[in-house]
Amino acid sequence: MPPTDVDAASQPAMLACENIKMSFGGIPVLKGVDLSLEPGTVTALAGENGAGKSTLMKIASGQYRPDAGTVYVRDRQLPMGNLKASNRLGIAIVPQELASIPELTVYENLYIGRETRTPLGTLNRRAMIGEATVKLREFGVDIDPAVQMGSLPVGMRQIIEIVKATSRGARVLLLDEPTSAIAEREVAHLYDVVRNLRDQGVAVLFTTHKMEEMRAMADRVVVLRDGQLITDSALADITDDDIVTAMIGRELENLFPEIPRHKDDVVLEATDLVIAPEAEPISFRVRRGEILGLAGLVGAGRTELIECIYGIRTPVSGTITVSGNVLKPGQPQASIERHIAIVPEDRKGAGAIMPLSVIDNATLPRLDIFSKFGVITRRKRQAAIGEAMRSMRLKSDGLGQAIENLSGGNQQKVVLGRWLTATVDALLLDEPTRGVDVGARSEIYRIITELAEEGMAVVMASSDMPEILSLTHRALVMREFSVAGELNREQLTSPDAQDTIFRLASGLETSHPTHTEELAP
Amino acid sequence: MTTTTADVVSAQKTRTWKSIVGNFLIRNIMVVVMLLIVAFFAYRSARFATPDNLVTILVAAAPFALIALGQTLVILTGGIDLSVGSVIAASAMAAAWSAKNLGDNPLYPLLAALLAGLAAGAINGFVVSRLNVPPFIATLGMLTLASGVAYVIGNGAPINGLPASYGVWANTEFLGFTVPVILMIVAIIVFAFVMRRTSYGLRVYAIGGNRLAAEIAGVRSKRLLFSVYAISGILAGLSGLMLSSRVSTGAPNLGQGYELDAIAAVVIGGASLMGGRGSVWGTALGLLLIQTINNGLDLLLVPAYWQDVIKGVIIVAAVAADVWASKRRT
Ligand SMILES: Nc1ncnc2c1ncn2[C@@H]1O[C@H](COP(=O)(O)OP(=O)(O)OP(=O)(O)O)[C@@H](O)[C@H]1O
Ligand SMILES: [Mg+2]
Questions:
Q1: For strand A375-376 and strand A371-372, is the pairing parallel, antiparallel, or unpaired?
Q2: Residue A521 pLDDT grade (very low, low, confident, very high; cuts 50, 70, 90)
Q3: CA-proximal residue: ligand 1, atom 1 (nearest)
Q4: Separation between Cα atoms, residue A159 and residue A175, nearest integer Å
Q5: Has domain B47-322 been given CATH number 3.30.300?
Q6: A254-339+423-521: CATH architecture
Q7: What is the model's pTM?
Q8: Rounded Cα distance, B183 and B188, in Å
Q9: Distance in Å, CA A221 to ligand 2 centroid
Q10: Closest-lying ligand to the alpha carbon of A435?
């Protein structure tokens, strides 16, 4: 099906999926997918949340056994549902949720399962460390392989996962949303790694929800919708809008809605909040209907600030006031009573409770409204949560489905939508659109602005620059657990806003000037 | 285009039809295992499938049911309570001591047993939730401590010669069932309701499924953890009273090793030791399975040591079957 296949006979595809069908609980997810990957190419796999991208990758890597269909690696048929066999034939996968072991060191992570041994059968640590250093260098990673995995930033761990996956001589590399967890700066490194592998003849397939990333990494894009591959094109021959239309089945006019004017009364106020020892105190006010952005590099303290406001973390000093009431520090339930809602950054670790159903997840923060004398009132919660999830356009097999079986983006919709069954005065969002497809992202933006219009004060931490620039009234730029600068709406819409934010975030510009002022030499 | 869609739909329908039966069996594999075991014993022993024998099984199951229910809650939070066996002994000794020393009133031993169980459970709960000691360690400590207390109360010997009123707790009958059996049935129904329909139950599942996420959603996890250990302790206390009342003796080695059968029942019932998964009905089924095996092997006159061997094999095989089935469940 790929456009140019001159000598397809002499060069069998690196990976060929034929007529793959898979359903969960009678609901078909893949309805006969054909996909072939040529050596030395990078293919982007696009599709809405729940389209079946991860499922297809899991089938190709032997994690799932499909209901029908075959997978060939260089003309050799893959035994289905056999991780080991796929691995042996050279298929490597880096899953959507990172699977590294944080307690072990980098080299231990790299070599686990195929450790180098001394003639006596004991671990040959020195050899492993040496080899690991060389291997990491090849990928431009200059770290000591003896450091603990957990001490590294997520982006670095991601790259080490790729090094691990490909170091066994992979011929096909499957990357499931490799960029959704990492900072923009680290993405560039990922690009290099992928290009490097492509030049070595590896066939790479990756999923992403961001157009820039497809453009930067891929040669070809395939789109999965309603269980079928509906578009297969060289990237050069297709526009972004066409990709989006193919993904969501309709045209998307504006990703960002118009943001409404905010009111004057203050909802959320932070006074001299010190969120880490040695950090500068932070003070700000968020008004009714205002969306305040928190920009900054990874590790700048955005998440910590949000956690301090909500009460997951106790600040060193300072106070938070909501509608005039001082919040008790370190008590999430007190914040909930004051109508504060949060969508945490780490969906799997802090947002969703995996074994529970959608409805139970959504009931939890609102248990008081949905129960009488401690007994859950079923009809009421069914109606309210059904309504909230409909407004999020959740894609699930019903509210009783376990949240762990939802696609990543749909999990995010539950984690946000669960608050909407009662009043929210202040909404705290930490990377609200991480791993969310464009269609859903535009819906989340629409919901955020609607909620602001209804009078919520919104604080949104984001690493997505367009999100900060287009969706906020005001943005604080954070650095080293302190506020390095602030941009108002006017400054945010000026052409060099992105540059200003970057300068503030990286410490090249420290005071609180308007960006037009000249820099001190 | 339309035809392909229709094909897909119809093909899918027939597949669903076929898989319905298979899926049902797979979903309820423990029920299938249970039925097979019942069928086997019924075939081998004429006495097995009689009403009298059913009552025998229920009577034997009752004291285990109480501690298995408490254990279910604890395991759902991702913890474990190893101390219930010795808490049974300590509570039984406290009950017997009170009956002997405080007077001939059946309420004294009830109160003594409940208090002893609650004290042990509250200490477990405090150590786990406030001092953050891993539950395995905390309750292992209590296992030893409570056993020591049991011997201390009786000065190293059983307490005999208890007033007749002591026996009412285990031997009074209503509608043909003794108090422990009725208590077991009521407790299973109440706990099933609490775990499925109340906010308390949902919170327990939630902290076991993901403690941090539950806290962010407003669950006060420390109180909740405390409460499950306290409940487990109280139920162990009740169980101790029932067991000692049946024989009208307080024995300091009563209940020894019972925690293992209780944990086995919970796990056979499909609970995950990681927390967040499991159910009261599952535990009830697991409990009946174990008790049925005990009873059936007795009827077949299998020697006691061999019974343990067979029971061990069946428990592991049953859970292995369940794990196998849950991978194929869709
Ligand atoms: N183990 C499972 N049991 C039941 N349903 C499942 C299971 N795994 C996936 N699904 C369902 O299959 C569909 C496809 O899921 P998949 O994870 O492949 O989507 P995705 O395209 O990767 O989405 P995302 O962009 O959100 O990661 C979803 O609707 C999901 O609910
Ligand atoms: Mg996915």
A1: antiparallel
A2: very low
A3: A405
A4: 11
A5: no
A6: 3-Layer(aba) Sandwich (3.40)
A7: 0.84
A8: 8
A9: 16
A10: 1
